[in-house]
Write the structure tokens for this entry.
Amino acid sequence: MVDLGREIDYKPRLNFRCCRLQPFSIMDRVVNMSEPQPSPGDPGSPHKSPPLFSRTTLSLALGSLGVVYGDIGTSPLYSIRECFHGTHAVALTQGNVLGVLSLVFWSMTMVICVKYIVFVMRADNRGMGGIFALLALIPSAGRRMSPELHSAIVLFGILGASLLYGDAVITPAISVLSAIEGLEVATEAARPMVLPLTCGVLLLLFLVQHRGTADIGSVFGPIMIVWFVTIAVLGGKEILQRPDILYAVNPLHAYEFFAVNRLHGIVVLGSVVLCITGGEALYADMGHFGRNPIRLSWLGLAFPSLLLNYFGQGALLLEDPNMAFNPFYGLVPRYLLYPMVFLATLATIIASQAMISGIFSVTQQAVQLGLCPRLQIVHTSRETQGQIYIPEVNYLMMIACIGLVLVFKKSSGLAGAYGIAVTADMAFTSILYFFVITRTWGWSLAKALPLLALFLTFDLSYFSANLLKLFDGGWVTLTIAAVIATAMVTWKDGRAELARKMLSSRLPVDLFLEDVERHDPQRVRGTAVFLSVSPVGIPSSLLLHYKHNQMLHEKVVLLSIRSVDVPVLPDEEKVKIEDLGQGFFRIIAFYGFAEKPDVPRIMQLASLQGLSTQPATTTYYLSRESLLTGGDSKMQRWRKALFAYMSRNARTATAYFSVPHDRVIELGLQVEL
């Protein structure tokens, strides 16, 4: 018999525990992003969307108002105020008001309307958007690009996603705080209540996340319609008093603004960018609603309502400069202040909910793409796949948001921290989009480079302006992004190194089957399913089982689960079966990066293809790696320790893969990195 102990270059440690699953390394589902992954279909071409004015589009457009535009829709609460009130405020003159409004108009037009609505939203991955969907559209290394370039592109995607987390932490804090600060406009006596009320609203918001948004999601759209119509009417009423404010659409006013204010004008540009925060949501939420519904709701209601309110605030400031401390609530008649504070609070809760839900989705995609350890992912709706809840992420965000409110105390203070992450993320989106149109769609450089230059001109201008606010709070979001990016890169590199160690000891299938045929071990009734690191060779768990027990089941299934570069795969494309002979079968299961793997479902799909198994007589074998950090890996020692810590604290595979917990046997290994 083959000496299986010598085939493994690390020391096996048998840890045989029936009917209980302990955490095992995420490497049991390796997705090597530097190698081509099986991907049925071609996701590189734009996805078809319903006709612009169909009944379906109109219904989806209504729903998108309550999810897509919460962040950008509540920006009028603080954007104009930050330009004319606070540490970096510019003098309140007619020229400066027209200049700021000109910057607002052209920023929203060029970045949101042109960049995202016209161009970036064409780059969908089977209908899905977002930075990970964009990253998945780019060909893998060896297909039109070098491994070094592909690694750099993956790093851009990781940095962009990390910056989204920084943005997500500050969005609920600044949005809710700025809404409740409206009470100070109504009465100075309410000032001591602003912070407690804000913290209370944020605490309640995060504590109810486990219930999901299915029940309240249906009212989000109507509330945001009321919000947009209200702010449009308030702004339009003031514009009628000063129609000359509309001259601000002339870009010469923006040019004159910079000519007069120079460096100070660039600092103010960092506040102007607040009007386009949330622009990434238009792209990230495309999978929920489609391109045309999002375009229709933006151009038909959100965009004109926002412009009317911004111009109305400008007109108010020309009439009454004393309202610079809060021009948004200055538009509201005093008898409507309390109802408006209530409506604004609802709108900011919706904005926060949209961002929180978006981060849950991004985290799920990161787990599926192998950039994050397994986390507990709870599906809160049986009907809607995208409605998920991740407790660890939720509570970390809650602590961070409330902590920011207590530290900065004013939305003006938080505004200094807001913007850097958003603008940097927009720049990474532009770069990834460039590689999609050149490497996937085949655009020539002569056609693609001018577009990239146009996008980066705006993105880098905003980012540079926000860097001037780095010490006013901007370091907060960059620190959050740096921590998350470091963890993601460490997890990715650690998985790759662990895969190299484990695959180097793999016994070839032919050699193992020859040994089985030669020695004809005892076969017992039922099916044994061994979750495998890779669809290559014999998994270590099977080697250990065979070595110590000297027996095999009638059917032995080697199961590998791979994530592919599309969001969702149909059932008929999820399972590939190979008959290895002597009762051995290899199953390769494919899942999209927006899906949750389900092992019992995989076995059901395999049964439909002829591999019949009985759940009651099926046993699942999983390996658990204990990582030692004293090996010869090129990773720094502190990164090895971080990777080992994340691996130990990863969620169990039972819940993540939906494996029946009473049908599991764990086999332990020690691996030295």
Remarks:
- The two ends are 30 Å apart (CA to CA).
- The chain has a mean pLDDT of 82.
- Residues 55-126+156-411 form one domain.
